[in-house]
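ligand=zinc ion
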Amino acid sequence: MAIRTIRELGDEVLTKPCKEVTKLTLRTKILINDMLDTMYEAMGVGLAAPQVGILKRIVVIDIGDGPIVLINPEIIDTDGEQTGEEGCLSVPGKAGVVTRPNYVKVRALNEEMEEIELEGEGLLARAFCHEIDHLDGKMYVELAEGGIHDVTYEEEE
Ligand code: ZN
């Protein structure tokens, strides 16, 4: 278990396309565990391998329903639309409004390198899109309508 350094916007590694994972080596298993630790430590809902400087097509997500590990994920179906605030661990303290499909179906490999299909709506659909974009070197800031802004926390009255 180890916490890895999260690369931030401006780091070249975040703009590069990632390579497919062809076999699950010990090194890759350690990477996946470290990605989960790093995501939980940073209190994020998702993390892609390039965010810790590794150009492999691996994503971890947990929107509060337990960890999801996706290897070589691809979006195979989408439906509907949602518009809402989105943030990224690589762009700390910022958020922006992004429109995404409201339903997303993903095909990927799990940690046993078995093919799986997962469906998500709402936040999970958004997380699938956001994290898979990272694997193609894309950041949500390019999609944010009106750019990104500081996250402000309103005082409770
Ligand atoms: Zn992100």
